[in-house]
């Protein structure tokens, strides 16, 4: 993607979270893009989540993200968003609700982290600062200022830092659900969650019955592969340590997908109902944790499946997501009167004007930096030729 042409119109790739700003000023700051776009100062409280005040900047960042995402999928093309429908809502209501849901979610993350003594480490804070510095340096190379980028997202520098810190805080909250963490639910709860949601954990050895072009091998060859699979099962059942022996055989023999270095791309799976082919899923669910199947025929070949205990970091992460979603649904969200005055279509139009003005500045800077053509139509030789590498 050409950053100088496209950067200002897309969502920040690293921007997953926003921070809670504090303080209030009588006069909007010169860089208050929220005020420029809506007439509402960025520190104005527009809602509360479980009593926590939500400033306009937090909400408008997510409103801009929602509008960008919805436009990507072909919506918001009508002249009046209040008459356009998205999922049984007007487009206006949809993007406002979507943004409010997002800001609620991350407010709840901050609240639950605080309740459970989960904080940012010094490394987290340093990483957030470094990301901002790296972004500023990268943008400068393209005649884009950090303020331009922040304006395009309707946020301030402090808001961006808080946003990145919330990203790390979210990670830390999820890790609190891991074994030994302050929110550790216990193995039984994780296993019950997996069962209730049709999730199961397995590893398998695939002996493929396909040729290099994906066609079925001759019947005689398939029979030989079945005999190999039966022999391998017998060998594994005789092993002193089934899982260790299984891993060795899997890494050496399995025809499942592999990385460039030859290692298995997916040495184990946390699968959901309907994700795998029927034969594989049926055989997997018939096993108890620690049990191994006989060879199971599927369209891909013969599988030897080892059922694993459900409790693992991946499933605990799913459990954490489910719990956080539940907390979010239970959150008490109240909007202020000023929230009702926010018109997403007017906001989007104003943001487009702000972005276009910055883009014009960028284009002018790039044009002035380009070498002037010589009389023969070519660029100046010195400017057109690459400079020697400092390392040469």
UniProtKB/TrEMBL annotation:
Pfam families: Rotamase (PF00639). Residues 197-309 form the PpiC domain. Its EC number is 5.2.1.8. Residues 365-386 have a biased composition (Low complexity). One of its GO terms (molecular function) is peptidyl-prolyl cis-trans isomerase activity. It comes from the Bacteria. Keywords: Isomerase, Rotamase, Signal. Residues 1-29 form the signal peptide. Residues 365-392 are annotated as: Disordered. PANTHER family: PEPTIDYL-PROLYL CIS-TRANS ISOMERASE HP_0175-RELATED, PEPTIDYLPROLYL ISOMERASE. This is Peptidylprolyl isomerase.
